[in-house]
Amino acid sequence: MTDTYVTDRRAAARGTADRRRVPREPFIEFQDIHKAYGPKQVLRGASLRVYRGEVLVILGGSGTGKSVTLRHMLGLEAPDAGRVVIEDEDITQLEEEELYRVRKKFGMLFQSGALFDSMTVFENVAFPLREHTEMNEEEIARAVREKLELVNLPNSEHLMPVDLSGGMRKRVGLARSIVLDPQVILYDEPTTGLDPITSQTINELIVDLQAKLNVTSVVVTHDIHSAFSVGDRIAFLHQGVFEWIGSMDDARDSDHPRLRDFLKASAVVAAQPTKG
54-70+95-271: which CATH architecture? Predict the structure, then answer.
């Protein structure tokens, strides 16, 4: 991987890498971000670039600051020092009304799906459209059906959250996160609490949506299998700093001691094919 271009590794596997090479244009930048909560220092000079059109996986153990990183991307947290830049705009000092404009670029899938239990699937997915657009009911219905089909849940509009499996709840949450056609999708532990088969279904859906929607994605996880299933690059977060950033292939061959220990503990090195 060069400094000028990023190549979709899934396209490379299909033999179409040359057609999928795009300039490495940063969509999100962290510039020396520090964040503490009282005496606890969570981010200690975190620097990171997320390039337009890629799937970046933020990998690290529990409590390392992964979710805090997502909140900074959305402007829900302000750093104590450093800058967060979204599409060449420093959002660090923006007022709340201006941050709202920036947040409209993002969709987010929460760990639990975060559905409203008193609303049907249709009402859950339609909620952002009713809150943030002037669409009429016919337009809303068409958009909801379209997004539910994208997450492989057609004809589910009438169901209540209590009727859904864990994987279905995640997919409804994902439909809601993309209903406003965001430029970036943030995934917070998308496979947590799911069995391996359902987890792989979610992984495949992330890859499928990436191709169909042409978005930029950031996946926060400690699930190694998910990371290697969906990612183009890994950013390894340890003790508040991104200690290692690189491609999935480079991660397998890395001699960075803490990254290697993390991968070995999850048996990913043995499970993944070696480069030929």
Answer: 3-Layer(aba) Sandwich (3.40)
